[in-house]
Every structure is written in structure tokens, then in C-alpha cells.
Amino acid sequence: MTVVRRHPEWIKVKAPHGETFFATRRIVQDLRLHTVCEEAHCPNVGECWGHRTATFMLLGEVCTRNCSFCAVATDGRNPWIPWSRPGWPKASSGSGCGTSS
Ligand code: SF4
């Protein structure tokens, strides 16, 4: 006997889509920002970016921690701190993106 396992509807994630999602992605790419959303391969990116919400990584794309469950790259060295970068990261918050988590 074959058991068909069905997942509940709420657990299914739609592929990222929509004008707002792509506008948020464009902001992140244009400003060369690093987000947990991308680095951690977060499955909620379509929904969050579709609502102009993203979680920024202030010290670059590498995390100093080493949590085994997380997809963010880790590095024991001191992180790169781009404090001198003009407009960073203020420019993104002025464009409609927020932060969360
Ligand atoms: S804001 Fe948080 S939950 Fe939403 S996509 Fe980014 S990391 Fe995932």
C-alpha cells in the first residue's frame, strides 16, 4: 500500500514574483547590499521582498558565527566593515526597504 503524503497549504511557498519583489531586489543589487534573505537562502524571500522588507547584513556577506543549521557563509576572521562606503546602508532604507527579524 502506498501512502500519499500531502503537505498543508500553508507550508507551500510560492516562487518569488511581482513588481514589488523585483523592485526590492533591484535596490539590493544596485546598492550592493548583503541580506540574510539571500545569503541564508531564506524561503520567505518572495513574500518579504514583496512587502519591501529585507534583513541586511551590516558587516558583509560573511557571518562571524558558525551555526550548523544556517546557510550563511562563516569566517572566523574579523568581518569587513564598510563604514566608509558612501550612503551605506542608509540609502536603502530611504528607498522603501525596511529591516526585520
Ligand atoms: S526578512 Fe527574514 S524571513 Fe524575510 S526573507 Fe529576509 S531573512 Fe527571510
In words, what does this structure look like?
By secondary structure, the protein is mainly alpha-helical. The protein has one domain (14-101). The protein is 26% helix and 0% strand. It has 4 helices and no strands. The N and C termini lie far apart (44 Å). The model is unreliable at 94-101 (pLDDT under 50). Bound molecules: iron/sulfur cluster. Iron/sulfur cluster (SF4) binds next to helix 2 and helix 3.
Average pLDDT confidence is 82
State the helicity in percent bands: 25-40%
Number of strands: 0
Question: pLDDT below 50 for ≥5 consecutive residues: which ranges?
Answer: 94-101
Largest sheet: none
Beta-strand share of residues: under 5%
Key terms for this structure?
single chain, about 100 residues, flat, disordered C terminus, binds iron/sulfur cluster
Spell out the blueprint of helices and strands:
Layout: H1 19-30, H2 36-39, H3 45-50, H4 90-93
In short:
The chain is mainly alpha-helical and 101 residues long.
